[in-house]
Amino acid sequence: MMKTGFFYHPVFLRRAWSIIGRKFAGFQKVIEEISQIPEVQIFEIKEPPMELLLEVHTRELLERVKGDPNYYLGLYAAGGCIEAGEKVLAGEIANAFLLVAGCHHAGRDFAWGGCTISGAGPMILNLRRKFGKVRVAILDTDSHHGDGTRALFLGDRDVLHVCFCSMNRTEDGGTKVDVDVGWRSSDDEYLEKVREHFIPKAEDFAPDLIYHILGHDTARGDYGDRGLSPEFYPRLVREIRDLARRICSGRYIVGLGGGARADLAEYITLRAVRILAEITS
Ligand SMILES: [Zn+2]
Ligand SMILES: [Zn+2]
User: Fold this and answer.
1) What does the alpha-carbon distance between residue 92 and residue 230 come to, in Å, rounded to a whole number?
2) How far does the centroid of ligand 2 lie from the alpha carbon of residue 166, in Å?
3) What's the fold here for domain 3-278?
4) pLDDT in tens, 94-113
């Protein structure tokens, strides 16, 4: 029986990070609770190979971000993406939850907004090296536009990137899409937009894997507030888990995106991990 992988690094819990602050400070008890779930296997992320990062970013950028307060957050987030992607594609685990999603504001030669190193870039490059042609559908439901991820994959039609942000745009033969969710949205309105703009596109695209940047900065009272309630996030994960089950053998990786509310990060993580673990039993 394949398990759900839970990927984290202890440094995530120890520091105060720029933008997201100390939202992981209380996670020791969350991780202990997750360790009690028999269908979940916990992985401590290793440092990613620099040669892989150098295929995605310029040497100048990788030197520059070493001085950024979020360097290790980005470094181990990228490592988590690489390891989780490989284990899911190899069939070692069914699906995965990353405590930190790879940085969606990191492009080849730029990184901003708390981001330092791309997650999707090295993950997909590594998957193609190990498994050949791999098609990935990226769902970005952080409040902000995933400009780094978009820039890295523009022109790569084996990557579907659907980003829920503040504009409507379709480019790259329909494989790169932005959807304006509005400044205020109810949970139902947002979910309807995902059903309309991501689910049918992903079904047509037929990916090998779905990678989801699950920001919770969209929650009421957080810094990217769109008016969403805490219950929205597990509902969304359940829908995409079921989609992955229909179209790509359940291969679904969820990474926690932006958002500074510690209570919400803990709630979403526990609920999402339990929802992912349900399919493996
Ligand atoms: Zn954001
Ligand atoms: Zn966008």
Assistant:
1) 31
2) 7
3) Arginase; Chain A (3.40.800)
4) 999 999 998 999 999 999 99
